[in-house]
């Protein structure tokens, strides 16, 4: 059955069957306002005629519903069209693999956030404005947390429209008051329908609500139901490992990116290790070493630590297993830290690096002083040192890839491990929404993105980065 939409913006449109010409459904003003549900007229997958290539963002039916959003399909673009257009949709079977549409006989498995920037036919070589084909709406789950506040501000700075979401209505209201005009949606991991409502209209969701061992799976499930991208800022090994093991096939089949641990712990170390590897296929060893001048933990950090007791994972002899961390040692950091006593650190980078970099040994360390602070229940939470909200905490993280006697080193330095997470996860979101990832499915930071380019994009505004 063929469903045909005819007419220009502001005119009524009618969907008819190409077989008998009878009305399929009526749709008011296609589509002057976001959120219009066309599920009655459109199938789970669509094929478009070549005329419809003028509006690539319409090629967007990844699920059984197609919500036309103002940011996806711009009426002014239709008004500029040289003539009325017929957008022709064919009912076809589901095909998760899909192929890129080039003719009207090919299946369209695209999500609107990955719609290509096509040149307009018949209008010279001027490309379509990116705002016409990119959905810049991102749901932030746990939007009132310490790190999430930095994430929301960074999203706004980068031109995204955050939807503020979380389970605590009063805290969510406070977060909304700090950003008038942003939509607030209460949702809980115990209520799948509320999560579904929180993600309506978004191109991606950033989960900032730990402990992630409790929140990651329900939010990913909701993202997969909505066929949108998922990113989080988890540092927890168990949560990140579960994401890779449980959701890899489903995310790949849905054609979306699921990117856990896109934060200071996890993402930054993974990117540095990938950058240090460079063109090497294998390394004998990868070491990550972090030095902090202090660590004032947030309430979320303490809750996460309490939720993840016991022995953690190490990667040694090509095996990921629960075991004691590597023994303490000395590490000579770049200034101003210099030589420091370091101890083993069992966080998300061990999991992510082991998923995509070929090495039999991954060793992760942190200097001893901040661990002592972290373990002291009297250590206060971080406090703002300036109007940006960042604390005065400073850090250096370096990754060393060794093969034989040759070492390659990548180093990042900056301020406030919670605040720096925001530009990391938002840059990742920006690239995911634009389709600038190497693959879909569950991915580590260095697996999804060109590591050196990603790190360079953060420097010098957010951190310093150099290869040695």
How does this structure look, described?
The protein is α/β, with parallel strands linked by helices. It has 3 domains: 1-129, no CATH class; 137-259, 3-Layer(aba) Sandwich (Rossmann fold), CATH 3.40.50; 268-417 and 451-467, Dihydrodipicolinate Reductase, domain 2. It is 29% helix and 23% strand. The protein contains 14 helices and 22 strands. It has helices spanning 75-79, 130-133, 146-157, 169-178, 192-199, 212-226, 237-254, 264-277, 299-307, 348-356, 368-375, 421-433, 445-448, 451-458, and strands spanning 2-6, 13-17, 23-27, 36-37, 67-68, 86-90, 137-141, 161-166, 184-186, 204-207, 229-232, 257-259, 285-292, 313-316, 319-322, 329-332, 339-344, 362-367, 394-403, 406-415, 441-442, 463-467. The chain has a 7-stranded parallel sheet, sandwiched between helices. β19 (394-403) and β20 (406-415) form a beta hairpin. α3 (146-157) packs across α12, α5 crosses α6 (212-226) and α8 crosses α14. It is globular, with a radius of gyration of 24 Å. Residues 1-133 have low confidence and may be disordered.
Tell me the domain tally.
3
* Estimated share of beta-strand residues: 15-25%
- Helix count equals 14
Which CATH architecture of the largest domain is right? 2-Layer Sandwich
Q: How many strands?
A: 22
Shape: globular
Under CATH at level 1, the class of the largest domain stands as Alpha Beta
Q: Low-confidence segments, ≥5 residues, pLDDT <50?
A: 1-133
Main beta-sheet annotation = 7 strands, parallel
- Find the CATH topology of the largest domain: Dihydrodipicolinate Reductase, domain 2
Radius of gyration over alpha carbons? 24 Å
The multimeric state of the shown protein is: single chain
Helix content: 25-40%
Strand order of the largest sheet: 9-8-7-10-11-12-21
Let me know the average pLDDT.
79
- Whole-Å distance between the termini? 61 Å
Structural class: alpha/beta
């Amino acid at each position: 059955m063929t469903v045909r939409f005819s007419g220009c913006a502001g005119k009524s449109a009618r969907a008819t069957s190409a077989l008998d010409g009878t009305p399929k459904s009526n749709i008011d003003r296609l589509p002057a306002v976001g959120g219009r549900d066309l599920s009655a007229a459109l199938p789970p997958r669509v094929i478009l005629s070549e005329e419809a290539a003028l509006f690539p963002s319409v090629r967007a039916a990844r699920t059984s519903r197609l919500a036309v959003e103002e940011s996806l399909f711009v009426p002014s673009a239709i008004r500029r069209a040289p003539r009325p257009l017929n957008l022709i949709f064919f009912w076809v079977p589901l095909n998760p693999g899909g192929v890129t549409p080039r003719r009207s006989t090919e299946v369209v498995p695209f999500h609107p956030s990955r719609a290509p920037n096509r040149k307009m036919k018949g209008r010279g070589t001027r490309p379509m404005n990116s705002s016409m084909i990119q959905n810049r709406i991102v749901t932030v789950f746990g939007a009132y947390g310490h790190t999430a506040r930095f994430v929301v501000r960074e999203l706004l700075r980068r031109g995204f429209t955050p939807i503020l979401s979380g389970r605590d209505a009063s805290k969510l209201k406070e977060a909304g008051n700090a950003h008038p005009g942003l939509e607030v949606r209460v949702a809980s991991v115990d209520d799948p329908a509320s999560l579904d409502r929180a993600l309506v209209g978004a191109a991606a969701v950033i989960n900032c609500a730990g402990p992630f061992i409790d929140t990651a799976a329900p939010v990913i499930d909701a993202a997969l139901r909505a066929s949108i991208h998922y990113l989080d800022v988890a540092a927890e090994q168990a949560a990140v490992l579960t994401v890779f093991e449980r959701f890899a096939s489903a995310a790949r089949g849905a054609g979306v990116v699921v990117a856990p641990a896109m934060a200071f712990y996890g993402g930054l170390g993974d990117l540095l290790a990938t950058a240090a590897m460079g063109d090497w296929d294998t390394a004998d060893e990868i070491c990550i070493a972090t030095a902090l001048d202090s660590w004032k933990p947030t309430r979320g950090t303490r809750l996460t630590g309490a939720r993840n007791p016991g022995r953690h994972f190490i990667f040694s002899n090509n095996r990921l297993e629960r075991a004691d961390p590597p023994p303490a040692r000395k590490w000579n950091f770049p200034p101003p830290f210099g030589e420091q006593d370091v101890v083993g650190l069992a966080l998300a980078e061990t999991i992510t690096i082991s998923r995509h970099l070929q090495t039999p040994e991954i060793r992760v360390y942190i200097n001893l002083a901040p661990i002592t602070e972290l373990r002291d229940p009297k250590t206060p939470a971080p406090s703002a040192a300036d109007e940006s909200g960042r604390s005065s905490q400073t850090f250096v993280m370096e990754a060393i890839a060794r093969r034989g006697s040759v070492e390659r080193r990548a180093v990042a330095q900056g301020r406030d491990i919670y605040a720096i997470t925001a530009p990391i996860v938002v840059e990742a979101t920006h690239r995911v929404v634009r389709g600038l990832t190497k693959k879909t499915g569950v991915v580590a930071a260095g697996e999804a993105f060109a590591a050196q380019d990603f790190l360079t994009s953060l420097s010098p505004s957010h951190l310093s980065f150099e290869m040695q």
